[in-house]
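User: Hey, my collaborator sent me this sequence without any context and asked if I could get a structure. I don't really work with proteins. Can you help?
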Amino acid sequence: MAQSAKAKVFATCGNHDLDTRHKINKFDPRGFLRTLQPSFPISHLSQDDRSILEYWANNFTLIEDETYRILNINSCAFHGYGDEQNQELNHGRISDITLEAIEKALRKSHREYPSKHNICLIHHHIKPVSSDDFEDKSAIKGAEKLTDLLSTAELGEWLIIHGHRHRSNLFCAGGNTAPIVLSCASFAATRTGDEHNPCPNQFYVIHLDTQEPGRPSSVSGLIQTWNWTPTYGWMENNDILGGLPKSTGFGYRGRISDLADRIYDKTKSEIKINRRRLIEQFPEFLRLVPKDMKSLLYTLDQRGIVITYVGQEIEELVAPDV
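Assistant: No problem. I've predicted the 3D structure and written it out in structure-token form, which is a compact way to encode the shape of the chain:
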């Protein structure tokens, strides 16, 4: 896939990638990964490249080019350690030592190059997904400190991409400068043995908005979702219950009520607004995470705006009493 797309591959270590139960290697859980060809976790680099050696030695590495900054964290760094009652393989972890080193590296990099896209790649999830039927204890230990660090204004805005629990979600991790978090569904694992998981198999194509040169980095863009559909294969133009919608966005940091007021006033003045006109007048409409989109549509509905759809996509807004 990477070769056909002429793309670079950046991976990160997951719990199933390691021989933590020593079924093959009796003393080195990560030995297999370190001998892979192409190299892991960065396929276009050699195994003795500094970035790859840093990833294994320091439990993270920072990869940069002219437009992006990727913070690649090994949340499985301590898998294979711990005693029988507190085995590290049961959860992710970012230690305080690792976080201190990350902060030092990010401050230096961002001070020199403030306008790059900031992406944090990590396997384990930052927020538990517990319910009455399922208690999730596998989230990252140290996730709160990581989120606080990546919320620091002088480090720019961040997009965190993670997996592990195979629950798709897109949300803001806190206040106005907090990271946007993309929690990914599984590309290929089935839900056998994970019946509490409502998500279909999905993969995502992320389009990041162009950064303004010289300005601190911000995070906004669009996500196109592909769903695996039995008998049909991968499909781009369908929504499946439980997963991310076929098209969604992120980056709007304003008040939903303020956006609703402006859309309401515009709809009343023009009587009807189709989808194209809506996006022309309010481009931020496409930069709402799914929960914010639901809040906006609910607010407009409560104020009498008639919303028509084609599938799950908004087709037209009509003012009250028309």
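In plain terms: Helices lie at 2-5, 31-34, 50-58, 96-112, 143-150, 256-270, 275-281, 290-302. You can pass these tokens on to your collaborator as they are.
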